[in-house]
Amino acid sequence: MGKAVSSPVWNNSSRRPAANLQSAYLPVKMMRFCLFCLSAIAVIGCHKKTTDRVQDPPAIIKHKDLGNQAIAFGQQASVDIDSDGTPDLVFRTSFLGDPVNGEDKKQWMVQTRGTVRLPVNTEERIPVFSSKQRIGTADFSGYYWSEGVAALLSEKVTNLQDQVIWRGDWVAVSHQFIPFLIGRNDGTYTGWVEVSFSKAQEQLMLHRAGLSVKKDQAIDAGD
User: Fold this and answer.
1) CA R_g for the chain
2) Helices (DSSP H) in the chain: which residue ranges?
3) Which of 48, 90, 186, 201 is most buried by a 10 A CB count?
């Protein structure tokens, strides 16, 4: 008979190092996972704090209805925007004869009173602001805030040949905004006046006005 083949005897102690290595690897994986979660939470928290920090508080604006008041040539209107009993802006007309160029000019203008300022450039023009355009207290884009301004809005020019020419940055505006500042002892307040102009009817129209309740606060035109 052949020799009996004995079954191999496994030594359980030979498997222990592998089991120990696996059990040691699991805590390392768990530690790495925990560190990843903590890092993600920290990044989200920092992002949220940064976002919250750059948000501006909503502007509080006092509005004044100007009743769509029309100013034809030869008329004027004073606007007391802050309701302190004195006019802040005066919208008026004037006639100017220009014999050198052979022109007669009917002009529509806006004039400041007191400590009210308008942004003007070197040509004494004021910018046409659109809805949501930002109004701050600093000078901007070639314009500087100034008191004692009498700025031309639009004019009807008739020459020696009775030809009519319309000029001015505000000739074709429809619900656009004049930005202004009001200076007080405690600070500066931003505001706007919404206006339109009609060449067909030859008149300037005043729609409404807005004034910041908080000092030194930037606002959006029309808000």
Assistant:
1) 37
2) 16-54
3) 90
* Count of H-run helices and E-run strands, the chain: 1, 13
**Contact (CB, 8 A) for 184 and 215:** yes
| CB contact set of 19 (below 8 Å; sequence gap of 6+) | none
In the chain, % helix, strand, coil (3-state, to 5) comes to: 20, 45, 40
Phi, psi of 41, rounded to the nearest 5 degrees: -65, -40
Q: CA 180, CA 118: separation in Å to the nearest integer?
A: 5
Whether residue 119 contacts residue 140, with contact meaning beta carbons closer than 8 Å, is answered with yes
pLDDT tens, residue by residue, 57-77: 778 999 999 999 999 999 999
Give per-residue pLDDT as tens, 141-163: 999 999 999 999 999 999 999 99
Please count the CA atoms within 13 angstroms of the CA of 133 that sit on its side-chain side. 14
